[in-house]
Amino acid sequence: MVGIIYGSSMGNTEEVANFISENLGLENEVVNVSDADADKINGYDKLILATSTWGSGDLQDDWDAFDFSGLSLSGKTVALFGLGDSESYSDDYCSGMGKLYDEVVKAGAKVVGGVSTDDYTFDESEAVRDGKFVGLALDAENESDKTEARVLAWIETIKSELA
Hints:
With 163 residues, the protein is of the alpha/beta class. The chain has one domain: Rossmann fold. The protein contains five helices and ten strands. The chain has helices at residues 12-24, 38-42, 61-64, 95-106, 144-162; strands spanning 2-6, 28-32, 46-54, 58-59, 77-83, 110-112, 115-116, 128-129, 132-133, 136-138. Helix 4 (95-106) links the parallel strand 5 and strand 6 (110-112). Helix 1 crosses helix 5 (144-162). The chain is globular and about 35 Å long. The N and C termini lie close together (9 Å). Low-potential electron donor to a number of redox enzymes.
């Protein structure tokens, strides 16, 4: 089973998590990180983790309060997506996803689903490694018209890794 764990303050990340769940075509469960702990997350075979970015590149509040020390993701496949504001916060667009990436890599996860930065407009992001986003970057404020197509294309790239 694939666990889709998200942190959402305004509802946008939750909305995308549910859209992914509906379109993934795999058995999955959608859980707000505020209702999860490390043991619950460790119990999934494969994961999709999501966060929005707040302030100057910070994790969403529920993820920020999460105790990552108990995560044990060795040998597990994890895909990430993040939401940010590429216009107002162009200097740290989706940087929360980069922080989440660092935590899951430290916990031993194999991260899949990196996305090219082409077709994105921003200045800097902690979520960019080796020239690609570490997962799917979305902007519900300024590029909501691109969200559905980006999500559906991303699902196709990760589906086989999560099956």
